[in-house]
Amino acid sequence: MDRVMRHLLRYPALVAALALAVTVLLGLQIPGIEINNNVEVFVPPASRQKQAYDEMRDIYGSQQMVSVAMHVERGTVLHPEHIRTLRELTGRIEELPYVDSVTSLTNADYIEGTAEGMQATTLLPAGDDLELSADVVRRRLFDWQEMYRGNLVSDDFRATQVVVLLDAGSTTAEREVFHHALTLLLDEYRQQGLNFHVGGEPVITVMLKEYMIGDLTYLIPLVTLVVLLVLYLSFRSFCGVLLPMITVLMSTTWAVGIMALLDIYFSMISTVIPVLLIAVGSAYVIHLFSRYYDQVVSARYRDARADSRSQRELVLSVVSSMGKPVALTALTTAAGFASIATSEIIPMRHFGIINAVGVLAALVITLLFVPSLLLLRPPLAPRRPRPSQIALHPDQQAQATRIERFLLALHDGFGRHRGRVLAAGTVIVALCVYGTLHLQVDNAMIDYFEARSPIRAADEFLRSEFSGTKVFSILVEGHEPGALTNPHALAAMDDLAAYLERTHPDVGRVLSFSDFIKRMNKVMNFPQEDRAASVGPEASFAPQVPDRRDADPGAYEDAHDDYNGFSSFFDDWDDPNESHPNGPDAPEDAHDRAPGEPGDRHGFDDAAVDDRPAAMGTAGALTAAQLAELMSAAYAAAPRMDLSAADLVRLISRAANYRGEAYNEIPLDPARYPVEDIRGLQNLISQYLLVYAGNLDDFADDALEPRRARMLVQLRSTSTQRTAAVSEDALAFAGRHFPEGYRVSVAGFADIERAVTELIVTSQLTSIAVALVIVFLIVALAYRSVMAGLFGIVPLSLAIVINFGVMGLTGIQLNVATAMIASISIGIGVDYTIHFLAAYRNERAACNDLDEVTRRTLLSTGKAIFFNATSVGAGFLVLALSNFTPLRYVGLLVGLTMFTASAAAMTVLPVLLNMFQPQFITAEEAPR
Question: Which site from 337, 468, 543, 708 is most exposed, i.e. has the minimal number of CB atoms within 10 Å?
């Protein structure tokens, strides 16, 4: 190696010029880097989750859903003026670029019974009489709550949701264009006093990019200033600051430029790359300059004629003595980062590869470019020349610097008290092992943002007012066309939906293909008098209220004093003897039907219909006695005694078959229908699909003979662990209750997020194991000793355990960002161990007094380790100012591991070396 270096450094000007030329060429590539935070790129293309997502997109269309919630402070969104605004807004959003479809209260499908059977119309009737239309919408919302409640309207009717699907496969740039246009559009309506909240995965990716650019804009200059300050405090020399800074900026430019050449996209965790390389790249130059200054000052201190020593001899001497340790530390650091490349999480893999390339670039620049610049100018010296060796004896300590006095105190406190070091280490390890056992693993992308950020506030609003923002699909596939008209398969889908809603509080809603079949069955079995009434303009339902078309929207509810959203079902009853429209979904505490038990989604079986008193009809007014008897019969059929008013209304509606409520089910019993067997029921369902004129593309692969269908599961929780629990339970239920010949699987963004969380654990274990093994092998081969490898990984293992322990004890989650900390710690922390081992070995060859050897090592290499750890740690602490919560933790925890790794190298390692006195330390041959 010395021969090669001496040969290359014969042409310092050429070497420096080539290095600068490469820097310029690679720097020109950087503007072409693409930023991509789409969740689907986190998993391998061949993974089950990615393939399932792609297949689902091919069958059911775009999955890029944006939620736009409109919220009013006074009144409800059903005020005619708000309806008019919503209709206008829906149309304008449809005109925005890259929009595939828009669904709102004004254009959503509604299935209703007619004299001929049924028809699919819009939820908002056509026409300009919005006063009447608003009341019709309100009635229809109650009538088909399974479809609209928690989806298009909140329970209190003060918020409505507009669901926007972007074009399938839309890029980040296209999402940005849409988001910018949507923001400008909503700002117009905000001036009218309306509140809007926007969420969804496409919005998250756009905001991630905006926050990333903000981070890069001020974090890179800030970390540069921090490293400059540390370098100045270390060397007190202009060149001692400038040359290392040029080195780290060049190596960072090389790495990011190569990233652009390889078409590797920039993700949220890539934000760490420039910060890391600037912080880490300074380490090698710090060690080189520290030795350079020590030799210059030592020569002048001992020999006034030292100036006669040529600069070339001095530089080559420094490169010869430091080249091997620096190369060894760079290789182990690169190996630590390369271990991250074993991860199946694509951005983490890219992170590991690019950082390994950056470290190797820093090594080349440190050993070639920096010496070349030194050879092109006279010798350098710090302003306050003082060799570190002057403090070897107590009577010379008065001349020591503060850092040297600190290192001497460190030696006196720990080097002479081995038991104290080992006892403290044991206690810390035990505490951190306990913390590690309580470590939480999760990777919800929305949690990357701080709690006060607008995107988090919007997400929390959408989750609290609607059914949730995290969505995954349960896909059901049959063996032949028309398989999803099988009543048993549809009933299993309905039972699965009811089971998930009942047993998992995080499930806000399950919308299934079976819900459409139930609705069709209900409207096709309206009693004739209800069917006849439904043919009319529905004006008879409208409450008799004064004309308030020009009134304040907040005053509209004065005409509905008893109204309280979905929680009340007794408003708008002009006739006390008139039956009330369909009630709401029963609350979760009323869902007591066991999994797979016959019955509808609300836990009420058909007893209410079967036990309906013979005297009860569905036409005409009821006497008080008849009403009481009807209520008693309905209550007696309930599955529990503590019913809510909503439950009772639903039971009464079923008992009276009001508007076909008794048939709000999957047709499963041939005795209740004009068919002979289950095949007849399947044909009946096929007839429903034939008559239905609406759009089922989002839920079935074919409108007439569906072989595939899906269920949309909305979750109110952001946790990927909760997603895993729900999806695994759904698959287990399907395995027990679905008919033979049907395959059930899951897919969607939430499923991919869950997969990333699972990969984090395996990737973390693999990368740590690979990094430790590589470090062990490199150190063992360098010293040709297995014991050297074992001693080399001890400080690193301590730093890793402490890192995970602190995370577990403080509740910091393990995610794609914090999962890199261990490998970063290994890659960087090994430098301290290698430099300490090399210096300790050299001092041991010159002295047999172990205490003196430890002192000398601490005062020479210990000072460089201190500067290095301070520079790297301070550089990473800059990340604590990041816009992203995980990156803040990365900054804090890497700063902590730099402290623990360097402290372990300067305390635990010398104690172990002095105790066991391994043979590789006293070997004559220097490490390779």
Answer: 543
